[in-house]
Records
---
Amino acid sequence: MSTTDGAVLGVAPSRGLALGARLSSLMRQAIAILLALHPLGAVLVLGWMMRLMRAEAREARRRLTRGERPRRVPVPGWLSAADDEVSGRIGRLVGAVWLNLRDGVSALVTLAAGTLPFTLLWMLSWWGGWENSFNKGYEQSWVGPVVGLVGVALALPLLARLPMALAYQAVEGRMSAFFARRHVASLIEAAGWRYVGLTLLSAIAALPLFAMQALPTFVEGWSPGFAERSAEEIETFITRYRLLATAYLILALVALRRMAARLHVRASLALEANWSSRSMSSRLGAWMRQILIWACWFTVVAQVFVAQFVNHQWVVWLLPPFSMLPWFAPLTPAP
Amino acid sequence: MSWIHRRRFATGALVAGGLAALSVSAARPAPTYNGPNVIIVRFGGGVRRRETIEPDTSWAPYFLNRLAPQGVLIPRLSIAQLDGVDTSHAEGTLNLLTGRYRAYRNRAEGPEFDRLEPTEPTLFEYLRRAFDIPAHQALLINGEDRLQEEFLAYGIHPSHGVAFRSEVLSLYRFKLWSLRERLARGSGTDAQIVADTKALAELEAKGMRGVPPRQPVEIEAMWADWRAHWGDSGLKNPRGDAALTELALWAMRGLRPRLMMINYQDPDYVHWGNVTHYTRAIAEIDRGIQRLVEAAAADEAYAGNTLFCIVPDCGRDTNPLMSVPFQHHFNSRSAHEIFALFVGPGIVRGQVLDKPVDQAAIAPTLAAAIGFRATRSEADALSEIFV
């Protein structure tokens, strides 16, 4: 086995090599944060995360099937790719650029297909509902709320499967895996309560992001006279604020995606071992887990709506950061 | 010796004081009012100078280019930066009506909010106490969605209060009248009567300050005309702030108000993220002002004898971190920065009063124009705007 990172060699790395690997890992994550400041860069980061999930899953399978002790999985590089990802010398040197782009676009397409059905409804409901309210269209006052509720109802099952479906796509390396409805459902069922835990962590981890969306609304409260600052000072603040939010987003996503990948392996192994959940009690447990997973995602949906109430940005409807592009919408002052 | 509960004693004293005030006013009839008609236009709910009086970015062309040159524009009117002063709608409107800051108490309970009851006399109460003006000629025109603005109609100051109240015209009041009138007639099928009874109970439950059983007969006559023209579905008459303009025009024709305040509110829709709601609402208010001014000029009861005062309740924020920066609850400078325009008889024409002026000065200035003193006001009248 060989990669560009000494930490995954079959032998225990020396202390110097381990430190180098750690620094290299930090550097690669720092690059991800910087790239994610721009939506096009965020597509590359999305691809990079797919490769990270693949590497994590590979390591998890090795550990779980061979009973070996866990090893740290390196974060993928931005230029050079691992031997098992590409072939040829040039591929190894700069292949990561292509892989990030390919996997990023693939994930973007599948995530768009998996989320636009409800995010579009959310956005249209908000626009149509308030537009109607402004125009006092009493005759159609039901349209906005009903479309919004349909969007929420549609979101819960789609969001519930998203982490596992994405992990399955990453591991399989094909877009169609994301849409394998029955298999993803089986994986989720086989993952059991761990998947509920992952969903709960996702909902909790989303809180700071939506708080950071809402916080600028109250800037005069925590920094009186902020609006009177010079344009340069405000620009500096915006840059730093966004960098902080993006750093949190990327680090949280890296952790969550890794967990999803490991969970996918556990579930796959269970299915391979002919795991079954046909007993009455296991069916009941599955239903309970399903309800809890939906409840967790409902809190995320609520976070989206509350944050939009406080600080509205049209783009956030379509790109909720934890379930679409890893991109924190910029603070864009009106002219 | 019987023990008297302190609160009961205080209530009794208040009632006695009120009755004494009423008996004084009853003993000495107030003089007939011969001053100008006054129309206060609240350029609400919350607008910034940038979208209204700044020429390059204004969405109110009639107001700025045609009307302002006919009177005194005060571009540097502001809401004072004081502890407990909120830049919001009811608060700002009461600053305008009482000439004081924090001249209210909040009657909200639990999850309710923004039910501000004036603790100082409003302009309506001053006027009706000083002159013999019936309630139907002291009018508040309110929006249907802001029932809490029923609280603006009168305060609880012992020397003024409900006896000198203004009457409220709103689609809410119209629906109340219409349902009550239908039920009193007993018209319709049994099912319709049941439905009307239920609808009336729901409407009455919405009343935040208790709903008086009747309005003056002159107003009820206007509602009858309104229903004959627009029907009572609420779907044919103009909507939103355009409905307020229509109500004001009907009042001018039918009730001949001597003091009327129109509480426009739709720019506040920008809270929910669509910037065009803000700018379109400002344009709608601009059209409303034009219709009101033209109607006054074409009506002999108002032509040459009507003072217009156009002033926002509050400004809106300029938050440099938001794509929709126009909130108004966060105390930024531009939420305090507003303006005013006075146009009418006795007012200097074509002047810009370019000095800092406090929002509390509006009430005493209007009082001076009408011919009484707003004795409880914190500010002085702006004498320089008068000819």
---
Amino acid sequence: MKILIVEDEAKTAAYLQQGLSEAGFVVDVARNGLDGHHLAMTERYDLIVLDVMLPDIDGWRILKALREAGGKAPVLFLTARDTVNDRVKGLDLGADDYLVKPFAFAELLARVRTLLRRGASPAFETTLAVADLELDLMRRRVTRAGQRIPLTAKEFALLELLIRHRDEVLPRSLIASQVWDMNFDSDTNVIDVAIRRLRAKIDDAFDRKLIQTVRGMGYMLDASGEA
Amino acid sequence: MRRPLSLASRLTLFFGIAAAIVFPIFGWVISESMERHFEEGDTEELELIADAIEGALSAVHSAGGLAPVEQRFDDILIGHHSASLYIADADARTVYASSAGPDLSGAAQATEAAPEDDPVRRWSDADHSYRVLTRRLRPGPIGDKDYIIAVAVPIDFHLQFLASFQRTLWLMIASSIAVMSLMGWIAVRQGHAPLRDIVARMRRISADKLESVIPPDTVPRELSALAESFNDMLGRVDEAFRRLSHFNADIAHELRTPITNLMTQTQVALSRARTIDEYREILYSNMEEYERMAQMIGDMLFLAQTDNGARKAEASVVDLDAEAHGLFEYYEGWAEERGVTLKLKGTAKVTGDRLMLQRALGNLLSNAIRHTAAGRTVHVKLAATEDGSVRVTVENPGAEIPPEHLPKLFDRFYRVDASRQRSGEGAGLGLAIVKSIVDAHGGKIEVTSADGRTAFQVVLPDQAVPEL
């Protein structure tokens, strides 16, 4: 998977490149609008991360040119100004998602993965399984090592989210938004409590702990079993 | 757009135009009536003469010509300075003409055809102007022929007088117009002196001296409303300004603590080599500070945008009990862990921005849960009031908030317990955000704390379409 980052701020560009490379992507970085425009138009990318505030050619023009030329790569734009106009403008011009600075890297990574997955049509699944944990999506039932575990509806939704994004770090804000439809930053540790309760049910009685805390970033369901 | 004319020029112009209309009319009436006066005097004199001549002529009976009465003509004319007489017969033959007078035959001819009711004319020969009266005597004194008599008086003197009078008059009118305009201008300048005074006082007002107001009784009555509203505005600006500077100080303070932590921690860490785990620990610790700051910045941006209307609200019908249920589910685990029960009573619908209302209710709820002791219950009550608005009450048992803190609870960064500043419960913006959302919906928020209960009461108008 090849990603283009167009970002003029040196530090931001460097850490985005490092972070995404370490997450297994091939990353090109353009440090100004002109290079970004050139790369976006000539190379094939699976995703473009575009800062809209660039000193020469702004992100909107690159996005517009790309879409006019028929480029279909999903575009995630970064903006420092959280105004409705910016968001609407970006989405109108054909961007697929946006993030407001400052953002958590885990959030960016989660959105990048979601955008990249979007193209592939998800198979209609009735069960999800990780290690010896199994989710029956139709009957909303969870078993681990053949043992039935009763979960509340929200706990089930949380576990399903973690499994669908296995091996991805999910920031708390994303979990709150996806599971509870809460779209504001709460100053409470609600998510930690919910995870703790879920763990008590699916992990505590077993040796292999599936739910991992990634300190400072969020939570992850570890399917690789290396931890 | 062109800048409108100054008030002074406007009024000066109006005064000038008014004077330019009134004075010439006045002047015209005066000179007309003077002319009329002269004309009437002349006509009277001419008629006197003509009557006398006619009388003299009536004494002539024979065909002996006019010779016997010519002496009488002179007698008649002598009393009237420079009057002259001309008599012609019907065939326009001169019968008599005063020796010194002008040749009136032309005048007589010209006026012969004139209507009889207007016998007095102005007539000029090469050098002089005259007023001439012509009269047809029929039948004439001699034989049965018609006679025409013409009597003339010179009016050069009158005309000259009138001309010079008119010259003077127009000069006076012109200067009056100029003087009026000037007076107008001066009056306006004088009248505007209080305005200039106010301007000067306004100019002296600076950001650090916002209280130097304009006493309304020191300005003319017409301007006291202006002064009052200006004072009111100044008061509001002063209040906003004071709050802003407090806010700035608060932000600086709020940011200084985490920045200091980050700096010292990093400096200490770098002062000598550490193990990988130690570095990782420091980075995690930094991460937590960063997150806190990022959240604070996010909250402040939200507040700024809600306050100045930059955040566009999407109005829809919001089912408040469904929102409350969702929030209960969200906070359930956390509340349970703290031993706090959540109870909802009533239903309500309101038109508003769902995400904003969710956030406001969520903040109130988390605030209530946080301040409730284990084993107690937080009550959320929804009710429609008589006037169609919706009342949302979030009530929790717990330590009462001292009354002096109540009005300040919604201030940014305000904390009842100053020592609990950084105990991981946000930056102290939660309730400020609630208030700002309620304000944006045109609602009201109140807090009461008594009898071991603290209650936040939000009243939202039925059509709480956010005015953003």
